[in-house]
Amino acid sequence: MSIGNLKDTGNQGNNLPFQWKVLQGLQSIISSTFNVAIKAPLGQQNNDNSVSTVLSNEQANVLINTAAKRFTAADDNATSFSNTIFSISFASVGTADARISFDGGTLYLILKPGETLNLDAGGVMNYYDGALITWDTTTNAGSSLLVAVNYI
Question: pLDDT tens digits, residue range 89-101?
Answer without folding.
Answer: 999 999 999 999 9
